[in-house]
Write a structure and sequence with these properties.
alpha+beta
Length: 456
């Protein structure tokens, strides 16, 4: 007979965040995707709100009451399933796209009887109101409460975390496995240096994971003794692909392998750092810094920026695919170029160097290194298509000396014209009209310079 105070995730037919919390819903999707999870029960949010009513009213409580119905249900579970147990938080606020609350709430393991589990439940509830958590929360965020998970503790031969995409570089074609022998909490909490394995598993092949996961290529392997065998690693990569397809979001997954080789998944949540990496704009002094070595004034920058923007500002493309942002900016008297587009345009075929090489030079050092060390990188064809479409529809191609095979000839001719032009501008100005004409002539010459140079 079901008990509303304690809901079995293994028997749950319809997930509800108010019943299971974010972590519990993640477990439900793992189970629905055909992946094995430990026996897990959830204490719904409403139970916490009733038992912790005074704390929600900003008053401290020494010991939260536990309903008799909940205690009876726990007694029955312990009697039917002897072993050790984990009590985990499963807050409504946890595992969000921006704020994960990772490590903020308490989890307690090694529990063997009802009394220990009840005490752990109280401690987990208490951690919800901790001062450190209140600081982590955004100001003015309402307290929504948390579910609490009672989870079977799986004896671990290997345990760790799995990322369906590279959380540092945002590379969607890499699966990252971090592992240690024994319990995985030390990996999650960064108390040990884990073994690490990186697999090349192209995103476009992941919908066909039943056939393709066996052919994922291991690119990197560190501390072999801390890692499960190669077959188990590929099964983990398969799980990453399954969950990413099921949730439509890159996933951070905790897993454990028992001494018999059974693989269990303890939780799955979005990779929060990835959303920040993908949305972060790339600003660079490359190209501009080499040509503008002195501090830039607002007046001087407004002149050059006005000449550059018709050539390089693809605002619609930036808004649609690259997080928005202006094409250029002046910061502390130094001009910067928005180089985010190069992250999307650069590509790399296996066993070759990235191309075009100029695009790679515009990226930050850690992204450049990640691309150089990768097996390959596909360009974002949507960005290419958008830029080409805008260039044609607005006839921007007329602004460029666009033929790269003859640009060097155009450059030689421009240098000769520039020398004569500069010599002609050395005369004193006799009137404001002459000054205006000289500014217009300089604007034209600047545009001629950029027409050749931007496409060279």
């Amino acid at each position: 007979m079901s008990n509303p105070h304690l809901i079995s995730i293994l028997s749950c037919s319809q997930p509800s965040i108010s019943d299971l919390g974010k972590k519990g819903v993640g477990l439900f999707f793992l189970l629905k995707a055909g992946l094995k999870i430990p026996k897990t029960w959830s204490i719904p949010v409403w139970v916490m709100k009733e038992c912790c009513a005074t704390s929600f009213g900003n008053e401290e409580e020494d010991e939260y009451p536990i309903p008799k119905e909940l205690q009876d249900a726990l007694d029955q579970i312990i009697e039917q399933h002897p072993g050790t147990w984990f009590v985990r938080s499963s807050g409504i606020e946890e595992d969000g796209d921006i704020q994960s609350f990772a490590g903020q709430f308490l989890s307690v393991g090694g529990l063997q009887n009802t009394e220990e589990i009840v005490n752990a439940i109280r401690e987990v509830w208490k951690s919800y109101f901790a001062a450190s958590v209140q600081q982590y929360r955004e100001t003015n965020t309402a307290l929504e409460g948390m579910a609490v998970l009672i989870q079977e503790e799986i004896p671990a031969e290997y345990a760790g975390v799995l990322f369906s995409q590279n959380p540092i570089t945002g590379n969607p074609n890499e699966c990252i496995i971090e592992s240690t022998k024994g319990k995985g909490e030390d990996v999650v909490s960064s108390q040990v240096i884990p073994g690490r394995s990186v697999f090349w598993f192209p995103k476009r092949l992941r919908p066909f994971w039943k056939y393709t996961y066996r052919y994922s290529i291991q690119k990197e392997e560190k501390d072999l003794l801390s890692l499960p065998n190669r077959k188990q690693q590929r099964i983990l990569c398969r799980a990453a692909a399954i969950m990413e397809l099921a949730t439509e979001h890159a996933q951070d997954i905790e897993w454990v392998i028992n001494p018999q080789g059974g693989i269990y998944f303890l939780q799955s949540r979005p990779i929060t750092t990835l959303s920040q990496t993908q949305k972060r704009l790339v600003w660079t002094r490359q190209f501009l810094g080499e040509r503008w070595t002195l501090p830039a004034t607002e007046l001087g920058w407004s002149e050059i920026n006005g000449v550059m923007l018709p050539l390089i500002d693809y605002r619609e493309t930036h808004i649609s695919y690259m997080g928005g942002g202006e094409a250029t900016r002046l910061y502390r008297y130094s001009p910067y170029l928005n180089a985010t587009v190069f992250r999307h345009l650069v590509f790399k075929l296996p066993f070759t160097t990235p191309a075009p090489s100029f695009y790679l030079e515009m990226l930050p050092a850690h992204e450049k290194l990640a691309i150089l060390q990768s097996w390959g990188k596909l360009p974002d064809w949507r960005v290419y298509r958008s830029i080409i479409s805008i260039t044609i529809s607005e006839q921007r191609w007329k602004l460029f000396r666009w033929n790269p095979f003859t640009n060097y000839q155009k450059w030689d001719g421009f240098v000769l014209r520039l020398e004569g032009f500069l010599a002609a501008q050395r005369s004193d100005l006799g009137s404001s009209e002459e000054a205006y004409q000289r500014i217009e002539a300089c604007r034209t010459m600047s545009m001629e310079y950029l027409k050749v140079h931007v496409c060279s």
